[in-house]
């Protein structure tokens, strides 16, 4: 008889991953209630100062709207391009299909900082001071 229910270890790993992802919020939320001008842990006094500034500032509103617009456009374009790629790779039946899928999925496997460093070294010319460090 086959059991499709996850085991105790799998369930424990899922809960540990969820805790690992949510734990930073447990530190950030109290920091946002500090009465000080700079963000730090509140030392007894609590304030909504930063939330009041967020709600009353036109700069923050513009920034939030711009971020939301960019996020929606990026998500929409990514969805369209991913759908077209999947349809195309499904119909192509090319022997290079697996290679194309690997190229498309590579950014998910390579950490963004490695990609950023590679792009940085790609666009910066070597100088005498960087040559001695291996560039």
From TrEMBL:
One of its GO terms (cellular component) is plasma membrane. It is a multi-pass membrane protein. InterPro entries: MetI-like, MetI-like_sf. One of its GO terms (biological process) is transmembrane transport. Keywords: Cell inner membrane, Cell membrane, Membrane, Transmembrane, Transmembrane helix, Transport. The chain crosses the membrane at residues 12-33, 64-87, 99-123. Residues 64-135 form the ABC transmembrane type-1 domain. The keyword Cell membrane applies. Gene3D superfamilies: MetI-like. The keyword Cell wall biogenesis/degradation does not apply. It is found in: Cell inner membrane. This is Spermidine/putrescine transport system permease protein. It comes from Paracoccus versutus (Thiobacillus versutus).
